[in-house]
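Q: I have 154 residues here and want to know how they pack in 3D. Can you give me a structure?
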Amino acid sequence: MAQVCDACGHSNSAGSRFCSSCGRALSSVNEASTEALETLEGIESGVTLEPPATGAALVVASGHQAGTRYAIASTRLTVGRHPDSDIFLDDITVSRRHVELEQGSAGYLLKDVGSLNGTYLNGERLSDGETPLTNGDELQIGKFKLLYLVSSTI
């Protein structure tokens, strides 16, 4: 059953938490703020931090999607709240188009593509430009903390 946004009247998919048109919250579920999330030292139970068998992956380390693994199999990957993103993170703290990962000569490069809340790599806010990722890096995109893992067979 579709959910209609009270603010703009847009019809959203069943189970959506935010309007895909205007970004307004569709439910009144209280969620922890970014400040209340645990660090990687206190990763939620059930999250496995094993590297992928081949290639690279992003693993959600905290938040309501903890444990979700996203394989990085293409040369360019988009992450954001837009439904067409390669990795869709459904939370108002994530910009529609938040970051891009692009394959470089020595691995993947991370680039914030104009997000409002910024992107953090190992606790430091990314500046303009591309930053290389290394195995074990922690990315914070909105309230999501993701761990970048690379196979040892690459």
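Q: Anything worth noting?
A: The radius of gyration is 16 Å. Confidence is low (pLDDT under 50) at residues 29-48.
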